[in-house]
Backbone:
């Protein structure tokens, strides 16, 4: 699976290079972004930018937003897993008090064991 990921990333990099080479004249054109909110002093303009710079900045902004989203999602999932483990421990203690023989350690270690590669 690791080789497939490397192959796909390499293919995307190759496609990106071909895109830039084939469109180099268009990407060298300058653009100036403007924001006019129709208020008295609310006219904003950027400095003239080449189109390739704008493309890279857009990509970087998207990458940062995706990174923030996945970090938030990862933290939230860790909190849920922690809460579920605490619930398992509480239920095991209640079952033990009720006189039922429970081995929560075997359940926890089975879930945490790494999968063997064949």
Residues:
């Amino acid at each position: 699976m690791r080789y497939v990921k490397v192959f796909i990333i390499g293919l995307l990099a190759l496609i990106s290079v071909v895109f830039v080479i084939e469109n180099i004249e268009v990407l060298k054109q300058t653009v100036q972004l403007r924001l006019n909110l129709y208020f008295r002093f609310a006219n904003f303009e950027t400095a003239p930018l080449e189109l390739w710079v704008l493309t890279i900045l857009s990509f970087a902004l998207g990458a940062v937003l995706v990174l923030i989203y996945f970090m938030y999602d990862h933290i939230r999932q860790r909190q849920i897993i922690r809460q579920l483990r605490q619930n398992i421990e509480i239920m095991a203690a209640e079952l033990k008090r009720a006189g039922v023989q429970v081995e929560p350690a075997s359940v926890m270690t089975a879930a945490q064991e790494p999968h063997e590669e064949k």
Notes: Residues 16 and 77 are 34 Å apart (CA to CA).
